[in-house]
Amino acid sequence: MVDREGLAEFLRRRREALQPEDVGLTRGPRRRTEGLRREEVAALCHMSTDYYARLERATGPHPSEQMIAAIAQGLHLTLDERDHVFRLAGHHPPLRNSASEHISPGMLRILDRLTDTPAEIVTELGETLRQTPLGVAVLGDAAHRTGPARSLGYRWFTEPAARAAYSPDEQRQLSRVYASGLRELVALRGPQSRAAAMVALLEDNPLFREMWDAHEVGARPTEVKRFHHPSVGALELHCQTLLDPDQSHRLLVYTAEPGTDTHEKLQLLAVLGAEAFTT
């Protein structure tokens, strides 16, 4: 059963405790609000201001699990806080496992500060959960993808366009990397895991079958990512990874050496924005 008063109080307290800089927003010179404004939280949660305000006033509808998950992410809740708000809303908290898409507040804070850097947060299956604006411009917008195609490893084997930006040598190496990574995940998570289900979806794919039958483990991508961008051409980016061991999420940060052609192209993409990436 939903605890409307408890939910309203918890949401209000969490909103008031957050500052604009905590969630990647700019603090205006005339700001008088304690914490975030309701409309700011509503935007972070991808819902209407009226809907969120009614929850804080304990007059709103019974929020769905999807709505509570969005609120938990928008308010940058910890896992314990996320579970608490689910219970207040009358729902069972999601399981804490590798399939969780709830990003930790610490990782979100880092991503929010990478405003001029291509970066993304991905699951262990390569599903993009969040991108910086320049990450969208460089790598494409992942928000529209659904189902298995959310995984870069799945798209790599099933969509020729995912491989087209890379040289034949790079394609071969990355094919080994994705097959090897899936094999390691199946061994780690078990035959009932999402990784095993993805293998079943790919088993009739000739390229995947060739890589899978090699039974290779330990293949790793190179630190330097070389590919052809549809608008600015060849890019050479260094990829650094930050791991959240509790959620098995990875923050991937892409940088270019100052003074290089790629560095100048990133500056151009920062101006062009997401429309620079076209298929």
From TrEMBL:
InterPro entries: Cro/C1-type_HTH (IPR001387), Lambda_DNA-bd_dom_sf (IPR010982), MLTR_LBD (IPR041413). CDD domains: HTH_XRE. Residues 35-82 form the HTH cro/C1-type domain. SUPFAM superfamilies: lambda repressor-like DNA-binding domains. Pfam families: HTH_31 (PF13560), MLTR_LBD (PF17765). This is Helix-turn-helix transcriptional regulator. It comes from Microbacterium invictum. The lineage of its organism: Bacteria, Bacillati, Actinomycetota, Actinomycetes, Micrococcales.
